[in-house]
Every structure is written in C-alpha cells, then in structure tokens.
Write a structure and sequence with these properties.
This protein has 309 residues and is mostly helical. It has 2 domains: 2-68 and 97-176, no CATH class; 197-306, no CATH class. The protein is 72% helix and 0% strand. The chain is elongated, with a radius of gyration of 24 Å.
Length: 309
C-alpha cells in the first residue's frame, strides 16, 4: 500500500477519478495522512464501478484514520523541480478542486511551501465548486442511480464541511492566513475562516481562563514559571491574531486584557514581581491601542504612570 500511495503521489493532479478512491484507501491502509470517512465516501460516489469498489470503500472506512504522520514513516524523496509544483489542472470546477486538494492535503505544507497564493488558489477553486453546484449535481446523479437520492443533500453538505475543515487545517499547519486571500470570500472559504478563528479563539480563551483562575485562587508559581505562563498566552494570542486578523484580535482582547491585567496587578501588588508585571502592562497598552479599546488604553496608561511608566 505504501507503493500505491507513492505512485498516486507521483501522478498528482493527473490522477484519474477512478484511481482517487484507491489512492485514498491505500493511504488509510499505509497509515499516512488520508481522507476522512466522508471524503472516502465521496471519492467512491464520484468514481465509476461502484459495485466492484464497494468492498474497498468499506474496508478503508473500517481502518482507523491516522491524523498525523507516524514517526517511522520516511518522507518520500522530492522529485526534480520541487514536489509542490503542479502540472496541468482540469478545467471543470470539481475535478480542478479535487486535484488541487489531493496535491496539498496529504503533504506537510511547512515542508512544501504552501504560500498564500497556493492556499488562495485552493480556496477559490472550492468556492467555485460550491457556487456552481458541481459537487451537488454529480452527487445527486450518482445517488439517483443508487436509489439514495434523498440522502444526497446531506452527504454533499457534510462533504463541504469536510473541505472547509481541511482548508482550516492547512491554514493552521502552514501558518498561512485564509482571511484576506479571497476577496470576497466564497461560502467554503468563509466556513474555513470561521473554523480557524473558532479553534484559535478556543485556545487563547483556555489559557486566559487558567491564568484568571490562578490569580483569583492566588496559586503562585516560581517567577520563571509565571513568566513562562504569560509568554505562552502572549505567543498563542499573537499567533491567533496573525492567522485570524484584526477582527479576531478585537474579539480575543477583552478577556485576555482582563485576565492578564489582573494577573499583573497581583504580581506587582502582592508579590513584588515588578520585572514581570511591567512588561505585561506595556504589552497590554500596545495591543489596546492596536485594537482601539479606549477603556483599556486609559487603564494601562494609568497603570504604567502609577507604577513608574
């Protein structure tokens, strides 16, 4: 199965629809990055020979999906010209999007330079699929022949959600923001942007809540650990802001400001850790000015003024 994956990878966008299901199943069996269950089902639906390939589909779905590369698998050697180079792409919306998607989703974008223009091309391709109804028409036609027409709409909707999830995952793994790549963003790009922002916001809120809880309970850590905790919250916030844009920064800032400010006040007033507290106040002031939070600006200016700004 490893060899099948390598051969499919070598064909890239030129891989015919009839072979994409085999490639996806082989990736499952080999333990490499593979399509979701819904993705496998759609590949089967869009390929010929349903009766003959149904056992392959069922076996692949029954095989647990590996979400990350196993450490014992070696990276395939790069082909000449760079493995991120794409050959001729199909002109029809769905085959084009599938070809681009297959090229990127099974690779590590950090290694293969998934630059903004590449991710933008992929997002636009899927937005066109949604706008044109290409996936819906093809799925409905196949579903009608299989006698499951009533399920087609739900299946296509799940497929679109899987695509958006993959786009969000590529953005998070590569560090390339989707927001701003497509103007205006289509339906699937918007779903991906929402997923990225939701995941990033959740991660920041979790750390902010932990910091706030420790402050309220006065659970002190050694100074170096307190600085590490603050640095991790700031790092996660700044990464989220880089990927989610100014709108996400404005959404995150009130909670981060409250948690970090109370934390810094506790460090300064009760623990005399001014070397940690003062940089926090300065960062909060800088970020408050960036997001336009006038109340926070006023508070941090007073904090810095009172504390020797």
């Amino acid at each position: 199965w490893r060899r099948v994956v390598e051969l499919a990878d070598a064909r890239g966008p030129a891989l015919p629809a009839s072979a994409r299901l085999l490639a996806g199943a082989a990736a499952r069996f080999a333990g490499t990055h593979s399509p979701t269950d819904t993705g496998l089902w759609i590949l089967w639906l869009l390929s010929p020979g349903h009766k003959d390939s149904r056992p392959l589909l069922e076996r692949a779905i029954a095989t647990p999906r590996v979400l990350h590369r196993r450490p014992d698998l070696e990276e395939a050697p790069a082909r000449g010209g760079g493995v991120d180079e794409l050959g001729p792409l199909p002109s029809e919306p769905l085959p084009r999007a599938l070809a681009l998607h297959a090229h990127w989703i099974a690779r590590d974008p950090l290694h293969l330079r998934l630059v903004p223009s590449r991710l933008g091309d992929l997002c636009r391709a899927w937005d066109e699929v949604h706008r044109s109804g290409a996936a819906r028409r093809q799925a409905e036609a196949r579903a009608a022949r299989l006698g499951i027409l009533g399920q087609a709409e739900a299946i296509v909707e799940r497929f679109h959600d899987e695509v958006a999830a993959d786009l969000a995952d590529l953005s998070l793994r590569s560090g390339v923001a989707i927001a701003g790549l497509v103007d205006p963003p289509g339906e699937l790009s918007q779903r991906a942007i929402f997923r990225v922002r939701s995941q990033l916001l959740e991660g920041v809120e979790e750390l902010a809540e932990t910091m706030e809880s420790r402050t309220v309970d006065k659970r002190a850590l050694p100074a170096v650990e307190e600085w590490r905790a603050w640095s991790e919250l700031r790092r996660r916030y700044e990464r989220a802001g880089a990927l989610g844009g100014l709108d996400l920064r404005r959404l995150m800032f009130p909670q981060v400001h409250r948690s970090a400010c109370n934390f810094a006040v506790w460090l300064w007033n009760e623990r005399k850790e001014t070397g940690i507290a003062k940089p926090i106040f300065r960062w909060l002031l800088t970020e408050a000015e960036a997001v336009g939070d006038e109340a926070a600006i006023d508070l941090q200016r007073r904090n810095l003024g009172v504390k020797g700004g």
